[in-house]
Amino acid sequence: MNPGELKNIVKEKYGKIAMQADNDKSSCCGSSCCGSEVDYTIFSESYEKKEGYNPDADLNLGCGVPTDFAGISEGDHVLDLGSGAGNDCFVVRAIVGETGTVTGLDMTEPMILKARLNCLKLGFKNVGFVIGDIEDMPFDEKLFDVVISNCVLNLVPDKSLAFCEIFRVLKPGAHFCVSDVVIKGSLSEKMQKDAELYAGCVSGASEMNEYLKIIADSGFVNAKVHKQKEIKLPESLLAEYNDSAELSTYHAGETGIFSITVSAERPV
Fold it and tell me: How far is CA 148 from CA 51, 120, 163, 264, in A?
């Protein structure tokens, strides 16, 4: 599929999740939304003990907690890419305080509407949500102190363009910290081409070394992987997309899917 088609699939899928979440908070990937496809909660980590956590904004769509390693300070201007219902933004708000600002960017209108409603309920005046594309952000250059993202950049067709945009909107000397899904080894051809697995954060993921190279090629320095965790997909899902030989290779450890949290800096 071309990039436009992939983006439309992602918009539709995450739009359904946003609308379904109001009716079924037990799982953001219930039968009416995702059927037997990827259960997004496989990737998620708990935010429940984080200051600023708001359950209404947590749709279990993350694959890490980037704020743990983002080095955010009081008064910072922080951008969250793929902000969803606002989960990470509200945690960031607890760190930057009244003197900072938090901006969430998302291309899915139902998510933006849900985030704005959550923000209205909380009464925050320094948190805002903007609809837009990560590959072409609607922001001036050198604007933000920190950029974060949680399990979203793997959904962007052109990751090089995404990191170049992150570089552009960061102030000189500023940094990003993102949690994302990467691959070690290679997925089967069927997995790589499946649109639903793309929307589920699997087939769109880059090989880990390639991912780190994209970061370096975009101009960033001092890249650091703070955390990585292997993600175990259900055997039923793996069997659906792999023949017996491919399954043997997968289970031999030659292929793996990992969540990583990585940061890097824009040079001064």
Answer: 17, 22, 12, 11
Asked if 132 contacts 104 with a C-beta cutoff of 8 angstroms, the reply is: no
Predicted confidence (pLDDT) per residue in 146-162, tens digit: 999 999 999 999 999 99
Query: Which one has a higher pLDDT value, 33 or 258?
Result: 258
DSSP assignment of 58-79 equals: --S--SS-GGGTS---TT-EEE
Instruction: Give the domain CATH number at 93.
Output: 3.40.50.150
How far is residue 221 CA from its own chain's centroid? 21
Identify how many contiguous H helices and E strands the chain contains and give both numbers.
10, 8
CB atoms closer than 10 angstroms to residue 38: 22
Half-sphere exposure of 190 (CA within 13 A, CB side): 9
Q: Name the residue range of residue 96's domain.
A: 3-265
State the greatest distance between any 2 C-alpha atoms of the chain, in Å, as a whole number.
57
* 37 CB-side CA count, 13 A: 19
Report whether 141 contacts 168 (CB < 8 A). Answer: yes
DSSP string, 228-255: EEE----HHHHHHH--HHHHHHIIIII-
Query: What does DSSP say about strands 127-131 and 256-265: parallel, antiparallel, or unpaired?
Result: unpaired
Query: Is pLDDT above 80 for 231?
Result: yes
Domain count, the chain: 1
| Non-local CB neighbours of 34 within 8 Å, separated by 6+ positions | 13, 16, 17, 40, 196, 200
Q: Counting Cβ atoms within 10 Å, is residue 252 exposed (0-12), middle (13-18) or buried (19+)?
A: exposed
Where are the strands (E) in the chain, listed by range? 77-81, 101-106, 127-131, 144-150, 170-184, 206-207, 221-230, 256-265
CA dihedral for 208, 212, 214, 217, sign (positive or negative):
negative
